[in-house]
Every structure is written in structure tokens, then in C-alpha cells.
Amino acid sequence: MRVIECTDLTKTYLRKNVLDKLSFSIEENKITGLIGRNGVGKTTLLKIIAGFIKETSGQVKVFSERPYNSLNVSINSIFVDDQMSFPPAIPLGEILTVAGNFYPNWDRELAKGLFDYFSFDPKSYHNRLSKGKTSTFNMIIGLASRCPLTIFDEPTTGMDAAVRKDFYRALLKDYIAYPRTIILSSHHLDEIEDLLEDVLLIKDGKKHFQMSISELKEWAIGLKGTTEEVLNFSDGKEILFKEYFGLNTMYAVVKNDFSEPLLNKAHLVGVEILPVQSSDLCVYLTSETKGGIDDVFNKR
Amino acid sequence: MQIADWIESEILNGHFESDGKVYSQYQLAEMYTINPATAAKGLNLLVDENILYKKRGLGMFVSGDAKEIIINKRKNQTLKRLVRELVLEANRLQISEIELIEMIKVANDQEAEQ
Questions:
Q1: A183 near A24, Cβ under 8 Å?
Q2: From A172, which residue of chain B is nearest by alpha-carbon distance?
Q3: What's the CATH fold of domain A219-298?
Q4: What are the extents of the domains in chain A?
Q5: Cβ A176–B37 below 8 Å, yes or no?
Q6: pLDDT confidence of residue A194
Q7: pLDDT per residue over A72-100, tens digit each?
Q8: Could you say which of A176, A212, A268 has the minimum Cβ distance to residue B29?
């Protein structure tokens, strides 16, 4: 079953298309990573899916309904980010109780367990928490609500490395026990890729691609060797990224459609065949400009 | 696929015996903090290679000739590749065949002593 279906979804802010005829769907009970550079419309997309803001044109269906103003979508989904607002006058302990009254699948024990594990004080207030603690508290709400559609927008902002690791593990364990549709947006694909089943990559408000994480891992390869040989083997292919080392060594990332014999041949003439990290690949695929940061300095 | 490699190693060192049950995709997912779908892909890879077999509703089991298949595979793929790399590097360093074989013998003796 498709939990989310978007067709030609467009959102315009001040005459600029933040989302531009975006079409994709997300299957039930999968963990999807939403990846894209800063400002490509990830948060806008997630907020439209959660029903927080209205689309400008196109169609968006969540649980077969338009999410905006839908109570059904509201009860069955949760949008977690570091800006979630909670009443400033209600202490944290009570927020958990109130949240439990709203979400039908709320797990009190899980909420309490995580709350204690991360050493929260029930008498403390949400607006007094540090950045990392705010994210941690919001994450607890996100997990314990057990919504059929759970959206985490940059959930680890401000969390230290140990808490991030705990969060990923908690998310996975609870997902295994209670499968649900989860969307995770993050800049740290390398940290979350093990958790994901699918990746949706957004570029310029459009879908760049959507594929399983295992396909993504094998989608490209890196060739490293003498400039001459690397250029020879990547001839006729689009070079997604290149880098030069020393005098005559080149590294080039290309789509992996080489045959096994060709790869062996490359290897025999001293060209190293290297796997490309999915996080690096996403950076290459979404780069706004050809070239790199060095070009800014070389022009001066 | 790291999961498949890990299960292969466990079969080779006798941790999983033939016709014994291996971990489910969910157990593997939890052990390694990975998505269960990824773990399932690792398991299915081994089913495709006849190293594991499925029993409907019961899980995945080690096939009778699993060890043999793994050893053959590693010999023909991994070991051959390593040897090729070894020869390539020896050529670059202009080491003769006799010298290279002598080095392998020394390394082999050292391994035997341990």
C-alpha cells in the first residue's frame, strides 16, 4: 500500500518554486531517507505531507487523503523537528501525559523509559532545554507516539555522537517491533544509511532519484590511477566527480555499468576500482556547480 | 554485502552447522543496527548461492555442502584476486618469480609455527 503519493506537487514562495512538479510515492512500512542539499525544499515537502502547510498546485495524498486540515492524517502522523512547539507553561512530565492522550498508539512505558534513560527532569520545561536536549525530547515524542507515518526532519540537530547513536538504535528496535512508515531527513547519510531501505534524493525541488539503499551503494564506482588510463576507461561516460592527486594520478567517479572483464582489464593496467560511499555520491549528484570549492580560490 | 560475508565466516568456523538454523533478518537487523530489508538481501544472496536454504515459515538453514561452496567461492574469487594483486605489485617492484615464491614460503612457515 502507498502511504504517500505526490503528483506534480508544487509549492511557491514569493514567486519562486520551492517544490517544482514533484512526483513520487512512499510504500507502507519502509524507512525512507530524504536527502538533498540545504534549501532544496525538504522541510517544505515534509510539512506539506504532515498537513502543516498547503500545496500551491498538484496533488498530495497521505493515507489516500489530502493532508491539509485532515484530522485523520493528524492523528496518524507526527512531524518531529527541533522547532516543535510545546506549551511553555507545562512541565515535561505532563507533556508526555498530554501527548499520550492525543496519539492512539502512544507507548507510555517507552516514553518513560527513554525519558529516564536520557536523564530528563519531569519538572523541567521545554523552552529551557539545550539544543541537543530539545532534539532528544522531541525524538522521544516521535518514537513513543508510534504513528503509522513518522517523519523526522533533521532529528539529530545538536545531539552529541553518543545520543545520535542511541537514537538510531532506539528507532530501529522500535521499528522492528512495530513496523511503520518512517521518513528521515538528514545531512548525514553516512550515519543513517544502514537504517534506510530507500533513498529519495531531491534536487532543485524535483525528484532526482528514488532507489533502494543497496542499489545506491552499487550505482557508481571510483576509478583511481594514472590520468591517461582513468580517462581511457571513463571515455564516453559522464564523470560525476574528479580529483587529481600528485603529478599524474586521477580519481574519477562514474556510473557503474562496466562489465566484469572490463573491470579486470582496468585492474591489470593498475587502475584501482573503488566503491563510492553513498553519502559522497549524493553530494556529487546534487552539486549545484561543476567543479569544487577550489575553483573559488583559483579564480582570484 | 557484509552480512553475507559474516554468515559465511560463521559457517566456515563451525558456528553454524549444516542443517542448522541461522539468524532471521530481524535478529540480524537488531544485532547490526541495520534495516531488516538489507539483512534480508544478505540472506537471500546466500540462498541464491545455495549456501542457505529456506524452509517455509521456519526460517533459513545451512545447506549440507555450504562449507564446500564457500571455500570454492573464496578460492576462485577472493584468493585469486589477492594473488593477482600480489603478482602485480611484485612486478612493479621487479621481484623475480623465485623470490616471490620464497617470500610466500616464509610467510606460510611463519603461519604454521603460530
A1: no
A2: B33
A3: Alpha-Beta Plaits (3.30.70)
A4: 2-216, 219-298
A5: no
A6: 92
A7: 999 999 999 998 989 889 999 999 999 99
A8: A176
